[in-house]
Structures are given as C-alpha cells and as structure tokens.
Design goal:
450 residues, alpha+beta, elongated, 5-stranded antiparallel beta sheet, 4 domains
Length: 450
Amino acid sequence: METQEYPASWDNYFARLKGENIPFRPDVVECGLYPARSPDNTKWQVISFTNKPGEMIGVTLPNEQFTDLNGVWARVLKKVLSADETKHVMTTGHLPPGFDGAAIYLSRTGRLPYAVHEARLRGEKIDMRPGEPDLGHYIIGSRDRTHWRPVLFGHDDEGNVTCSIGERTNEGPKFDGFAWEQLPRFPEDQNGRGWERLWGTGSCKPVSKKDYDHLVATGRLPGESEAAAADRTNGATVPTARSDESTVTATHNQPPEADTIEALKGRHDKLKMEADPLIKKGPAKTKDEADRATDLKDAFLKIEKRAEELYKIEYDPLDQQVKTLRAKWNLLRTEPEIFKKLLLAAVISPWMKAEIKRQQDERAAQVTAGVNPDELPAVSPPRTGTGLGRQTAPRTTWEAEIVDYDAFLAHVKNQEAVKEVVLKIANVYARSKIEPVPPGIKYKKETGAA
C-alpha cells in the first residue's frame, strides 16, 4: 500500500467519535484507535494507527509495533474507541458496554458488522447470501409499488440478527410516519413474516444512513420527487376491466375517483409545478437531481398511459364524438411526453454524460498514477431514478449526416425501399397530371373496379 493512500489526519476518527456515519474502506488504513481480537483469540486489544511524515505506524498498545498494516487493518473492528474506552479495553481485555453485541456477532459469523453493507454502498458487487443478511440500512418497495419502506438489519447484545421494518401509518399522499414491526427469523404461522424470507427475496436495496434517516423522517428518499412520490400514492387504483366484447363492464363503467379527468389533471398540474423549475434550471448537477427528474418523467409516463387507457375506453363506444374527446384528452396524452423529453434532454442526459466523463477521467488518473488497468473494478454505467419507477440508463444511438446527397442517392437508388418511395412521389405527379412531365417517367391511365 502506498503512503499517499493513508488519510493524513485524525479528522475522521474524531468525527466518528461525535457520531458521524463515515464509511470505512477495507483497503485504506485510517488513523485512530480500534479494538481487535488478540492473535490467540483470548482477549481484546487496542490497535493504534498513526500517520507520521512518510509512513503509517501501527502499534498494539501499549507499545508493540507491527508492520503488517493491511493484515491488522482487516481484522480490527471498524468502530473507533474513545480515550476512556481505550483504557477499559487495555485494563480488562473486554470491549466497553455497547460493543459486546458486535463482538459476539463477529465471533459467531466471522464477519465485521456493516462492513459488507458499506462495501456495497461504494459500488462493489457482492452477492447476497440467503440466510446471512448483511447488517445495515435498506429499503424495500411496498407491495403496491407506491412508496419505499425502511428496513434495518442489526444485532442484539447477544450477537443475534435483528430486523425492523416500517410501514406507513396512513394511506394517501400525506405522510404521517411509519409503524415498526420486529420480524423474527421465521414466521410464527403460514401468514406471518420472517426476516430470512425477506432477505432471501433479494429485494432489499442498501442505502446510506443519511438516506435511510431521510426516508424515516419524510416518507421518501432525498433524490425522490415529492410530487412523483405523492402521485404514486394517488395513482394506486384498480385497473379498469373490460368484457369479452371489449366494452366496459357495468361494475367498472364509472371510473374510480382517482381516475377521473379532474383527478388526473390535478396530479398532472402538481407534477408540472415541480418539473418546470427543474427544466429551467437545466442540466442536473447531482445524481439526486437526476433521480428526481427521472421520477417525474416516470410519473408523467404513468399519467400519459392511464389517460390513454381511459381515453380509449370512452372513445370505443362513442365514435361520433371523436373530436370532442380529442379536445378533452389531448393535453394529458401529449404534454407528459413533452415533459418526459424535456427532463431527459435538459436534466438527465447532460448529467449522465458528465458522470460518464468523470468516471473515465477518474479511471485514467488511476492508470496514470500507476494502477494496473486489469486490477481496477469494472465501472457500472450510471443510472438515475430511485428504483420504484422506471430507471434511466445511458443509451448510444447512431444517425447519419449526408455530406454528398448525389453520391449517396446513387449508392442506394437500386434498393427496393428507395424505389418504393420514388414511385410514390412519381404517382403524386401522375395523379395531379403535373405538366411538363418530369424526365424519367411517363403518365399512364389505369382503369379498374372502384
């Protein structure tokens, strides 16, 4: 490990003592005081890492210096010790109160609490193993796909896995807090829930503590559009049914309240109020802004689709009122598409291009610094959107620029598609009997049954 990789100060150590959630990196040793099991696994010791000019010094307190920095760093418990806690460990060989559960969990599983979760947040691809939840903060979509639910995997004082899951206490767009449920490992009956099955579905999405706390406090993620989040709740309606004859059934002839044009228009107007400032602001500066725009784009898409569905339901038996229906529904059928494209062009795409360039520049800098390109982790293409709706990912397209029209036309003139287009143009001249007759064609009269 190169010297310049070591954080040169104790700033992170003191920040963590104050309770700040600063993720650890398994490959970067940081200054501080940490607990670790003794080599014979009989007691706990205090490990000190100090950065002196030009080198990192590792010491097992009180005064046993070691050189295998990476090896020792890998086995320390990633939780800093205060001065009083350091004295406690050195005097008793035991962890201070509050550390015991983590120590037992580590001893029982051989895994550092929260370490895998933190690695996933850094973008490392680690498979989730059934029956072995990685402790940390997660979110999971509600069954009706209208909102996120917070999930916390932790441990108790005996080192056993615990799982808390929140559910909104009220229906509708207004958030009124979460009700919490403690899940056992296995359900008590057939209808119950257990954390092993929840973890085994692979649907728990890791998030930072900051984002988790924001969800618990507001009911949505930091990058989640408030209007789009409320719209998902408003739009959770039962799909309209049709009979075998493709006519609206009697029980569904009157749309639910949320599916009236007034309700859809109200949702659409609320989304516009949030989308307009984003579009005027221009390219997203952060992923949160791009996520927010993507959620709005998805909400417009859902309104557009629902409006189209309801439009067709009314249109089928009312062909004679086509013009009236078009005037009634065109706004909701077309304007969401405009806002989707504006959000994509003005906000999301510029951020994606900038993010891709940043990743490329960062990778190039690492290679320039001497890192073997084959050792660098694969770079995942940036995606936007919080995950409840459709996400947006980079898409490469190609289009032509004609620089010599005559040359290109000469190249494709014998293709069947070109011949069909040219024939259509020639028929326009013939049907209109335009004089003089253009060179290369002649008009001929065809008589057939009408």
